[in-house]
Amino acid sequence: MEHSLSLIIPCFNEWKNVEILTEKIANILEKSEFKEGFELLFVSDWPAEEFANLLKNIEKQYSFVKVILFPSNKGYWFSIMEGIKAAKWEYIGRTHADLQTDPKDVFKAFEIIKNKWYPKNIYVKWIRKNRPLFDQIFSFWMGIFESIYLKTRLYEINAQPNILHRDSFKKWINPPHDFSFDLYALYMTKQMWLKLSRFDVLFPARIHGQSNWNTWFKAKRKFIKRTIKFSAKLKKSLHS
After folding, report:
1. Which residues contact 177 (CB under 8 A, 6 or more apart)?
2. Is the terminal CB of the chain with fewer CB neighbours within 10 Å at N or C?
3. What pLDDT was estimated at residue 113?
4. Span 210-239, mean pLDDT?
5. pLDDT at position 97
6. CA–CA gap between residue 220 and residue 225 (Å, rounded)
7. What is the mean predicted confidence (pLDDT) over 85-90?
8. Is residue 20 very low, low, confident or very high in pLDDT (cuts 50, 70, 90)?
9. Is the link from the previous residue into 161 a cis peptide, with omega within 30 of 0?
10. Of 46-60, 87-101, 212-226, where does mean pLDDT reach its minimum?
11. Is the pLDDT of residue 195 over 90?
12. What is the 3-state secondary structure (H, E, C) of 59-120?
């Protein structure tokens, strides 16, 4: 179906978030044209039994929801790639389940894509606003480092949500299943000469739950070390 969207949301233990998020999307769909051309894919790697049952109940309640569970413990990014493979519609988007991104922004972006002269050539990636100062500084210097290291202008690398035409995913070569995924996706956007569209979105504090990594300085320092390691691996794979 032309101008249809599959939205992938990886989740692990967002008990309260997934129910609220699904209800919000259902309310949006009631007032939009996406009733026949939209699916919400919850992908979860090694979820607790109770959480898996919650997702399955949501799937039974809402016709646009599809749940994909992996008893493999291969990680967050593996779940995203499996969600991309399972997506059935023309455009594929992804975002978080933490309610820091308003689902209205996803549909707003898709409306903008549809109105472009050549929408297949568009990659939408947000710019997060209203974030803590330290997080802004962290993202800024991460962008500076990656831009110099990979010789391509890159910024707000981990911003959500993202929307891309499914044909673009087919051109990816061995995408990583680790924290360099967003870096790889943004880098490939530049290499494929896609038009990058950026929009400001508010990024408020979490309503429920807590980040598994973005908690304190020691965790961020660990993330920086991993980022450098993944960047070196990515650069080697891209130029080998």
Report:
1. 74, 75, 77, 78, 81
2. C
3. 80
4. 68
5. 86
6. 9
7. 93
8. very high
9. yes
10. 212-226
11. no
12. HHHCCCEEEEEECCCCCHHHHHHHHHHHCCCCEEEECCCCCCCCHHHHHHHHHHHHCCCCHH
Q: Which residues contact 106 (CB under 8 A, 6 or more apart)?
A: 5, 7, 93, 95, 161, 163
Alpha carbons 143 and 162: distance in angstroms, whole number = 17
CB neighbour class for 158 (10 Å; exposed up to 12, middle 13-18, buried from 19) = middle
Higher-confidence residue: 218 or 180? Answer: 180
Mean pLDDT over each residue of the chain, to the nearest integer: 82
The rounded distance, in Å, linking the Cα atoms of 233 and 176 is: 10
- Asked whether 158 and 182 are in contact (CB, 8 A), the reply is yes
Distance CA 107, CA 10 (A): 18
Ordered domains of the chain (ranges, CATH): 5-238 (3.90.550.10)
Residue 26: per-residue pLDDT: 94
| DSSP conformation letters of the chain | -TT-EEEEEE-SS-HHHHHHHHHHHHHHHHTSS-TTSEEEEEEEES--HHHHHHHHHHHHH-TTEEEEEETT---HHHHHHHHHHH--SSEEEE--SSS-S-HHHHHHHHHHHHTSSSGGGEEEE-EEES--HHHHHHHHHHHHHHHHHHTS---STT-S-EEEEHHHHTT--S--SSTTHHHHHHHHHHHTTPEEE--EEE----SSS--SSTTSHHHHHHHHHHHHHHHHHHHHHH--
Question: Is the pLDDT reported for residue 187 higher than 60?
Answer: yes
